[in-house]
């Protein structure tokens, strides 16, 4: 198709996700046609630094022939077979590999097509498990404010973003929210009890709110707590010191499963294969996707402990849940090649070695009057934008629409940086680039952000 045909066909037939289609009534739909390394190229030949890894997905960069060849070889041998009472070698090998990489006794791997399905599977497993062990009332879930856990009805119910949920009500009942760990907004979150100057005390308070919620609902009714190692929505909230250890204690005390939602944070994003390893805690379930294949094929995985599998090994029992394309042979082959490259090219080591430089480069932006906070971990950062740094006054809804979406998002892209300008919570710019970049790309990101944010501030 030529450019004009592509544009018209996109506007006439393609229903894009999370997209205000009215925005394209008078402007072109961005069309990305290829990628190479850390860069993507549009239909007009313009180059953009992929500062978001597609959608927190691409760990190893674009255009890798070795991954493409692994997919092609598998497609020639066995393109598809489901895991419904049957197995195939790539799914078996990948399950074994993930069990070896996961912490503790998380040895049971249930494949899905993506992250939302992994979260959905984890909630269904929690409810099913407790029924089988004689605690049928344990079905409720606790998650954090502003947290995003996916779009299927169960995962969306766990999500803590009212604006994404209202239009799909009624959702699945029995989900409850607790405060998140945004230490920059600690005074607001704790109603003045903590100002963020003592991160450990704030973390203890935030973790204790989970126990308050469990007790308020009744421990005999709560099945699981769903938390991300670094919370995505709201702009990359890392855990305060001791937070995860306290949450683990609380879950153990009340026989509540701890689900580490690592759809974004697993597979090197934080410098370790799993976020739980990065922050030294042992969950009962890990949900994952995205970086498992670096985006070269769709795939997710729920990884559970042996304890959770045990009741399903009894005669006559089964987990009556599954997906047609889960554990797809080609996707599994891609994942295996992806994980092999992590080892042969030292990807985790590279992230651990260069993450401090990435943070330091982004923190240079703190001299701008509109940059209130730079936070995150590994290769996963959020930059919170404010109207007044002294008071931490945020942008109004009108200013978010006019400046964040109407100007910043478009200008960053026009300047050659693909990233996310988001106001689910306070307004932020999020960065999650391929794990293979270095100082040259860090500097390029900082340079573009500095110019566009400076111009955006003049519009307030």
What's the structural blueprint in terms of helices and strands?
Elements: H1 3-13, E1 32-36, E2 39-42, E3 47-50, H2 53-56, H3 65-77, H4 89-101, E4 108-112, H5 115-132, E5 140-144, H6 153-158, H7 162-165, E6 175-178, H8 186-189, H9 199-217, E7 222-227, H10 243-253, E8 257-261, H11 275-278, E9 285-288, E10 300-304, H12 306-309, H13 329-344, H14 347-363, E11 371-377, E12 380-385, H15 397-414, E13 417-418, E14 420-422, E15 428-431, H16 439-457
Parallel strand pairs: 3-13, 5-6, 5-7, 7-8, 8-9
Antiparallel strand pairs: 1-2, 2-3, 4-10, 9-10, 11-12, 12-15, 14-15
Helix pairs in contact: 3-13, 4-13, 9-10, 14-16, 15-16
Rg value: 22 Å
Biggest sheet layout: 7 strands, mixed
Q: Helical residue percent?
A: 25-40%
Give the low-confidence spans. none
Distance between the termini: 41 Å
The beta-strand count equals: 15
- Give the mean pLDDT: 97
Task: Give the amount of beta strand, in percent.
Answer: 15-25%
Helix- and strand-based class? alpha/beta
Query: How many helix segments?
Result: 16
